[in-house]
Amino acid sequence: MIVKHLADLVGTEDEVKGQTWESRRFLLKKDGVGFSLHDTLIKAGTTTTMWYKNHIEAVYCVQGEGEVETLDDGTVYPIKNGTLYTLNGHERHQLRAKTDMRMVCVFNPPCTGRETHDKDGAYPLLDDEKATV
Predict the structure, then answer these.
(1) Residue 67 belongs to some domain of the structure
(2) Which sequence ranges are marked TM in the entry (predicted)?
(3) Phi, psi of 38 (to 5 degrees)
(4) Cα–Cα distance measured from residue 24 to residue 16, given in angstroms and rounded to the nearest whole number
């Protein structure tokens, strides 16, 4: 059994920050459960362009308001507390936060914990949980 508390992740290597987001990574590849689970904060007024070419991501909004746009077809989906979206087609997308947003994100295959978005907005596939990008 794995038991973790958010307070145990803040300020450790399991808390990763980007310009528009902060991600606290509860479950990672090293945990051996087949997916990773992240508690992610998206900053109000920001736009983040992403394209998870290597991962399927499911995102559940537990706080805040914004929208996600699929860039290939321009479809915009509103997001608020209680909304789930899944990028099961590896869609290029933009996440726009109207307010601070808190998202629970699941990635398959699991992230190692050290990934950051590359120039395409993607996470690379890392084999070693100690690898950095």
Answers:
(1) yes
(2) none
(3) -125, 140
(4) 6
